[in-house]
């Protein structure tokens, strides 16, 4: 482990480069599935992220940032276009980013930027169209790590045209299930000899979706446990069905005890530390090349993760705060305004217009985000009144500083969504509200959610793709789209 880390550091060391004049270089790092509450800068006291925390001390921290979708494919479609996922294509497994909406990389290309993206594959492989607008968009390994993407990104930086500004996107699945990582990190926070049920959850490639409502159903197919076609995937009927299944001897259900939950969460925390280590390696490479003095560097995640808090693991089944609260930290050239914390609701659609303004580029008409650049330059916070989110499992939600109201039972891209939101009884099963919301707040939020849904533009035509059997198998191995 120490040997390959030393080799990596040697690979990433380079000579100092002179500071270019003109628009800044822009670097976006996405740590897939990283929960904000695991970072010291967001209040975690376990010391998991010293490199991120140091970076945050030199950057501007948005304290209340949210994803607008709960899965990698849809969240990145929004990140790159500043639109909601249903405005970019059909919100199901064959979504391919359509050719119509301008992308961050495409717009910056019009202003002379060269661009590259290095990803962990999976739903960020070329098949899904998220590389549109990039000069180079490569996956280093399916469901790969920053271990794979960071060295490739640094080599690209060393070989790019020094006379042109750059956009660089770096992505890794380090904190995505399975959470076990190379070397000592996988068990750095737990007892590696533990053999309880929690050990099976983290070792099984589908373990996070076979653990439901306090039991691990290791011999079942995911479709036996979560009915993907149900109007409400976590409704009362579905919960009763799982409860009945857990009592059947043939189900071979094993109860998840507190020590099992602690083990799974500890392994996740180890993956967070592993991602933080590689982020530190990347920062060292940028610093060595003088790029921290000249670049806007963004650290974010595309969504969070549930770790058994409501009986589920993984992230794609609900629009809970755990799945949607994300870190968002922006470091300006030279660390200007470093250490500032910005309160108030923002979301990931705000990233594209912010970076376009940083580059002196004009944002496309019709985008959903708002530029945070004036705030980053020392101006006052410009919080949203509410943030919204979508899921492929027939759900939408609204989040304000008072709480969350969710609605399920109809497709997020259905033309009937808005009238259904307006007509459905708040007391019924379709709505799920935070306990702290009173009746008046729920009614106001339902009205706002319906108004938001009514103004969403539908994509012109489904742009479906054919996934190769090999790519489909890779995706299914992580519990997506009819997992085996």
Protein described:
By secondary structure, the protein is an alpha/beta fold. The chain folds into 3 domains: 2-15 and 23-179 and 262-385, Alkaline Phosphatase, subunit A (3-Layer(aba) Sandwich); 192-257, no CATH class; 394-454, no CATH class. The protein is 32% helix and 17% strand. The protein contains 16 helices and 18 strands. It has helices at residues 2-12, 50-57, 72-81, 104-110, 146-159, 197-203, 207-210, 222-225, 236-246, 258-288, 321-324, 351-358, 373-376, 417-423, 439-454, 469-476, and strands at residues 25-31, 60-66, 114-119, 136-139, 166-172, 211-212, 215-216, 254-255, 295-300, 306-307, 313-314, 325-326, 328-331, 341-347, 387-391, 395-400, 403-408, 431-433. The strands form 4 sheets. Strands 1, 2, 3, 4, 5, 9, 12, 13 and 14 form a 9-stranded mixed sheet that branches. Strands 15-16-17-18 form a 4-stranded antiparallel sheet, covered by helices on one side. A hairpin with a 5-residue loop joins strand 10 (306-307) and strand 11. Helix 2 (50-57) packs across helix 10 (258-288), helix 6 (197-203) packs parallel to helix 10 (258-288) and helix 14 runs antiparallel to helix 15. The longest helix has 31 residues, at 258-288. The protein starts with a helix and ends in an 8-residue tail after the last helix. The model is unreliable at 14-20 (pLDDT under 50).
Number of continuous helical runs:
16
CATH homologous superfamily title of the largest domain? Alkaline Phosphatase, subunit A
Mean pLDDT: 90
CATH class of the largest domain: Alpha Beta
Beta content comes to 15-25%
List how many beta strands DSSP finds: 18
Biggest beta-sheet profile: 9 strands, mixed
So, CATH architecture of the largest domain?
3-Layer(aba) Sandwich
| Silhouette | globular
The N- and C-terminal alpha carbons lie at a distance of: 33 Å
Whole-number count of domains: 3
User: CATH fold name of the largest domain, please?
Assistant: Alkaline Phosphatase, subunit A
């Amino acid at each position: 482990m120490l040997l390959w880390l030393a080799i990596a550091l040697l690979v990433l060391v380079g000579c100092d480069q002179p500071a270019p004049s003109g628009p800044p270089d822009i670097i976006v790092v996405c740590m897939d599935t990283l929960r904000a509450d695991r970072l010291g800068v967001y209040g975690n006291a376990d010391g998991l992220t010293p490199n991120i925390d140091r970076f945050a001390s030199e950057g501007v921290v948005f304290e209340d940032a949210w994803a607008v979708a709960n899965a990698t494919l849809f969240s990145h479609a929004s990140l790159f276009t500043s639109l909601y996922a249903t405005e970019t294509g059909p919100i199901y497994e064959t979504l391919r980013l359509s050719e119509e909406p301008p992308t961050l990389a495409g717009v910056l290309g019009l202003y002379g930027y060269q661009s590259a993206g290095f990803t962990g594959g999976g739903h960020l492989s070329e098949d899904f169209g998220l590389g549109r607008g990039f000069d180079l968009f490569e996956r280093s390994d399916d469901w790969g790590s920053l271990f794979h993407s960071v060295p490739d990104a640094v080599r690209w930086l060393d070989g790019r045209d020094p006379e042109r500004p750059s956009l660089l996107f770096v992505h890794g699945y380090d904190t995505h299930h399975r959470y076990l990582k190379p070397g000592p990190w996988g068990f750095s926070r737990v007892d590696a000899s533990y053999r309880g049920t929690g050990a099976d959850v983290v070792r099984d490639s589908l373990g996070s979706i076979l653990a439901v409502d306090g039991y691990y159903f290791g011999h079942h197919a995911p479709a036996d446990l979560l009915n993907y076609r149900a109007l409400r995937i976590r409704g009362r009927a579905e919960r009763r069905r799982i409860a009945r299944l857990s009592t059947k001897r043939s189900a071979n259900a094993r109860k998840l005890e507190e020590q099992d939950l602690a083990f799974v969460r500890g392994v996740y925390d180890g993956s967070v530390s592993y991602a933080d280590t590689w982020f530190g390696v990347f920062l060292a490479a940028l610093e060595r090349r003088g790029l921290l003095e000249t670049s806007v560097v963004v650290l974010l995640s595309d969504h969070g993760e549930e770790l058994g808090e409501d009986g589920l693991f993984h992230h794609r089944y609900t629009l809970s705060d755990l799945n949607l609260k994300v870190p968002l930290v922006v470091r300006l050239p030279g660390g200007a305004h470093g250490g500032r914390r910005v309160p108030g609701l923002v979301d990931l659609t705000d990233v594209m217009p912010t970076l376009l303004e940083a580059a002196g580029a004009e944002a496309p008409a019709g985008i959903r985000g708002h530029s945070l650049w004036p705030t980053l330059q020392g101006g006052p916070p410009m919080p949203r009144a509410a943030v919204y989110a979508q899921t492929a499992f027939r759900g939408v939600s609204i989040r304000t500083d008072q709480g969350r109201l969710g609605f399920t039972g109809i497709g997020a891209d259905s033309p009937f969504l808005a009238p259904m939101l307006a007509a459905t009884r708040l007391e019924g099963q379709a709505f799920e509200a935070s306990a702290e919301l009173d009746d008046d707040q729920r009614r106001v939020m339902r009205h706002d959610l319906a108004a938001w849904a009514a103004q969403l533009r539908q994509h012109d035509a489904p742009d479906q793709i054919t996934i190769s059997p090999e790519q489909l198998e890779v995706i299914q191995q992580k519990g997506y789209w009819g997992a085996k």
